Amino acid sequence: MLRVRILTALVFVVVLLWCVSFSSHMAVPVIFFALGTLFAGVEFIAMRWHVIDGQAAVERTHPVLRREHWGIAMCYALCGPIDWYGPDLLGQAPTMGTSLVFAWIALCTVCGSAFFYRRELDLEHSTHKLMNVLAGFVYISIPGVIMVRLSQIPIANAPRGIALYFSLACILAGDAGAYFVGRMFGRRKLIPKVSPNKTIEGALGGLFFSATTGLGICQYFRLPFSPVLAFTIALIVGASGQVGDLAESALKRTANVKDSGSLLPGHGGMLDRIDSLLFGVPLAHLLFLSLYH
Q: Are 82 and 97 spatial neighbours (Cβ–Cβ below 8 Å)?
């Protein structure tokens, strides 16, 4: 299982590197992150509706994906292309992308309200579903948009996409560090109701791995941060990644499923793989914009 997990991760990293750093057309990374948003979005909404429809009483390997889940996930995935290409199509400045994304979310809300309240007899049931659809835009779509933006932040004398790679490396190193330190030294449970296998020792080990990885990347690529600042940024990003991991664990435990899906061999679903990124990347984007620009 570990070998399959590592192989899947390597393939994912190679595809990411090609899309962000070596592709000649901006459409490639936009489509790549939109597809990630699509698969993560369909898993999220399937889990949430699994709970709302009262199907969480029986434990499952992963929730069943239905056509309506894919339709909602497509709305999530379109946020990235709208943010990047919408201003050009309308002859507006690139900064209008954010406004267009929120306009799209508002349009989806209006159409979703008409659909849910016309279809469902139970008003409370419909409202719960609609609120979870809106939560998906915040939880899945907006981080997906920010990943594209973070990958395009230019840093002098550094590879294209280094801001994104820095963030991913800090978060993934933290995940690996928490796992191995927790396995070897873990004694005290972190939040057993959410994730019974995570320990305080593992979380601290993960933070250490995140911080040292960020420091090493900054030193190697000579990023414009002091060692103390690089260590601090990496620590913050790594901590937010751990919170994202716990948040997805809570979603799965609520839905009574083992994995969010079965797309990635050895990892489960797309949401299982990017859960830490959904919290860590937006914060990293904010830090890079405020400190570098």
A: yes
Q: Phi/psi of residue 27, each to 5°? A: -60, -30
> Which of 111-120's residues contact partners 24+ apart within 8 Å by CB, and which partners?
112/72
CA distance 104 to 290: 27
Blockwise average pLDDT, block size 10, the chain, 293 residues = 75 89 90 96 95 87 91 96 94 91 94 78 82 95 95 87 93 91 90 89 94 93 87 94 94 92 83 93 90 67
208 φ, ψ (degrees, to nearest 5): -65, -45
Residue 10, classed as helix, strand or coil, is: helix
CA distances from 83 to 87, 93, 97, 138, 196 (A): 7, 11, 4, 15, 39
Cβ atoms of 40 and 63 within 8 Å: the answer is no
- What residues does 264 pair with on adjacent strands? 268
